[in-house]
Design a protein that fits this description.
Number of domains: 2
Strand content: under 5%
Radius of gyration: 17 Å
C-alpha cells in the first residue's frame, strides 16, 4: 500500500534515523575495541537491535520521500543519471557477489533490475519504484564493496528526493 506523504512524519523518521545511526556508530567503536566473544556478541547485537530498525526506518523514509514528490516534478536529467548509477550498482552486486545472496536481497535486486530495464517507464517512475527497495539491499552484511555502491546511490537518490520535497514546501 502506498504511503501518504506526511511532512511531520518525515521529520520524525529523520530524527529516529539520526538516533539509530548514532547508536550504530557507538557500537562500531565498541566493536573496534573489543576482542573475542565480546566482539562477536556486539556484532550480533548490531544485527538484532540496530540493523533491523534502521532498515525499517529507511524503508519508511524512502516511501515518504516517494510519496512527497509527484513524478512530473522529478527532473529527467538527474533522474536518468541516478537510474544509470543504480543500474550499474545493481549489475555489479549481482555479478561480483562471491557468497550466495540472501533470498530477500536477491529478489529486491532482481525487482530493481527488471524495473530499470522497462523501456516504457520514465526515469522518475523507475526511481520511485526502486528507492524503497534499496534499504533492504543495503541492510545485508555481505561483501562490503558491492553493497557500498548501492548505498552510495541510496544516499544520492534519497538526498535528490529530499531536495525536491524541500523545494515544494
Amino acid at each position: 500500500m502506498p504511503q501518504q506523504f506526511n511532512p511531520d512524519r518525515l521529520k520524525q523518521v529523520e530524527e529516529l534515523l539520526a538516533i539509530e545511526y548514532d547508536k550504530h556508530h557507538e557500537f562500531e567503536k565498541d566493536i573496534a575495541l573489543a576482542t573475542g566473544n565480546e566482539k562477536i556478541m556486539l556484532k550480533q547485537r548490531v544485527k538484532r537491535e540496530i540493523a533491523l530498525r534502521v532498515r525499517e526506518l529507511e524503508r519508511e523514509y524512502a516511501d515518504l520521500l516517494v510519496a512527497g514528490v509527484p513524478s512530473n516534478e522529478v527532473p529527467d536529467i538527474e533522474a536518468n543519471e541516478l537510474v544509470m548509477e543504480l543500474s550499474k550498482a545493481t549489475d555489479a552486486t549481482l555479478q561480483t557477489q562471491r557468497e550466495p545472496i540472501p533470498e530477500q536481497m536477491l529478489k529486491a535486486l532482481q525487482d530493481i533490475k527488471a524495473k530499470l530495464s522497462e523501456d516504457k517507464e520514465s526515469a522518475s517512475a523507475k526511481l520511485k519504484f526502486s528507492l524503497p527497495l534499496i534499504p533492504t539491499i543495503c541492510s545485508y552484511d555481505v561483501e562490503v564493496e558491492t553493497v557500498k555502491s548501492i548505498r552510495e546511490v541510496w544516499t544520492k537518490t534519497r538526498d535528490f528526493f529530499k531536495g525536491l520535497i524541500r523545494k515544494g514546501q
